[in-house]
Amino acid sequence: GENVEQHPSTLSVQEGDSAVIKCTYSDSASNYFPWYKQELGKRPQLIIDIRSNVGEKKDQRIAVTLNKTAKHFSLHITETQPEDSAVYFCAADVAAGNKLTFGGGTRVLVKP
Amino acid sequence: NAGVTQTPKFQVLKTGQSMTLQCAQDMNHEYMSWYRQDPGMGLRLIHYSVGAGITDQGEVPNGYNVSRSTTEDFPLRLLSAAPSQTSVYFCASSPGTRYGYTFGSGTRLTVV
Question: Do A89 and B102 lie within an 8 Å CB cutoff?
Fold first, then answer.
């Protein structure tokens, strides 16, 4: 089955700096790669996603890049703010259907 | 539009008891999934469904049953609760392949 590895597991950045989280996946048939943000005690919420026919996608301060050849994708957060502090999860679909496998998560702490 | 509704929010069970976690969505989504979230383990797929009458196993299905008799509802049954099933359970739904999941608010289950 699909295996998704996520790094780093924790990330501490100064407010205003950039944060980068990287994920690798094993199934070359995967075509959909969403990112979720989970604040403490809350549900995961979709923040951005990318499909395999696109190499990069931006939404204000967040961006995701995808390298299908290398089977990795990354989340970039620019000009970080304290409200960006949360756990971020990457995921990849399994081609048979919309079944998502999640990475282990990255705890991001933005220090004021 | 309530989204994905999970009940109960909290539950304490004794070892060996059975119970059903309820999940309902009002977005007419075909795809639904159940995940469990343990500290440091990310989100692991228990069971999923791609439509009424169709279910399949995820990564950690043992000890759990599901059924999907309607598009709206996807209950998760614990057959004989064990302490290892202490976790936060999330139900999620999606319109279909290559679309993000919307998560419910979760059920925090403790088995003593």
Answer: no
